[in-house]
Amino acid sequence: MDLFAQSAKKRLVGQPLAERMRPRSLDELVGQRHLIGPGRILSNLAPGRTIPSLILWGPPGSGKTTLARLLGETLGCELTALSAVDAGVKDVREAVAKAAERRDQFGARTLLFIDEIHRFSKTQQDALLPHVESGTVTLIGATTENPSFGVVAALLSRARVVRLEVLPDAELAALAQRAVTDRERGLGALDVTLADDVSAQLVAAAAGDARRLYSVLEIAADLARRAAGDDPAAAITAEHVAEAAQGRNLLYDKTGDEHYGVISVFIKSMRGSDPDAAVYWMTRMIEAGEDPRFVLRRMVIFAAEDVGNADPQALAVAVSALQAVELVGLPEGVLPMTQAVTYLALAPKSNAALTAYAAARKLVQERGSLPVPARYRPGATALDRSIGHGQGYKYPHDFAGHYVPEDYLPDELVGERIYQPSGSGFEAELKGRLEANNAKRKPR
Questions:
Q1: What are the tens digits of pLDDT across the range 431-441?
Q2: Would you tell me the crossing angle of helices 275-287 and 334-346 to the nearest 10 degrees?
């Protein structure tokens, strides 16, 4: 499917405001100055110039499709566009064949724009490789997902990844005012006005997405015009914006880059002992529709990995929250979740459980299956006892304090220190106990 099949001269009647207001040149493009500003990768472009294949990575509404279209027009290239949602290998091959024909017959270059390129299978992406490498097409891929996860390494190595940023509030506000006053493509014929405070509400509802900004604005302007009746001018109000927005769309993909970004900062907020941020990011996930059990599993892991014995109660709190949510469900389940998150965030921290397991695993991998010392093997039979099993074992409960200084590691590892308790919280008490026990050991 060619995304740009419509002629630029086609009548604008019936098109959504977002489509009508698309920039017609790079000079009209708002935002992304880190790409098109002076001295940047996409600056000073003109017909006949070349650019490398690009992967445009950015959130919805940041201008990926628009930028691809403007690159084709500015460079004087043929722009062929496919959507990875409904295009297959056959479509790719047909597009490449036409590009080769244009190159051979007319010396024309082709930009092949593939929207949502991360949705292409490995086979589909591999089909592009020889044609990108030979220069038959210059690839412009667009994705909302981290290209490292969704684009094969061979294709990434042949393209330049450029990141498009969320549009700042000031630039979104400028887009809104331009649309309100533009009589050719915008809403100027409706004679509506947009006050600064209402514009700020509109921008907040857009959440960095220019497409959503235009969608909400178009509906709000229509509501204002109908409410004004015969009055020559109509003011878009906060109520109109709220009705048009119908709540805020939260950017969150349960399997994509935003998913991993939010869960990452959620964990880091708890690790950094910031309960405000931890509750905020947890709420972002829950309100966006994340399975609460996914969040709770991360909290249980966190309780052992980042709190551990600095506060042994933390693991019990996390597990209890999981059980509570399974019992009561949502929405009430957000209360035990919030209780647990704030507890974990403010608990003393220790990653000694993580480092202890890592140290033990390293010894196991490096030294293999070292034998169990004979004195610790069970001496259940006469044969066992005849070869020394169980001989010399000292039963701790027979000694004062129920402790006897012995080494239970394989003989080859005696002296290794695997568990290194911190001085944080209750683990300081455990550290003192361990040091006292170690002081009683005789050097070997």
A1: 999 888 888 87
A2: 150
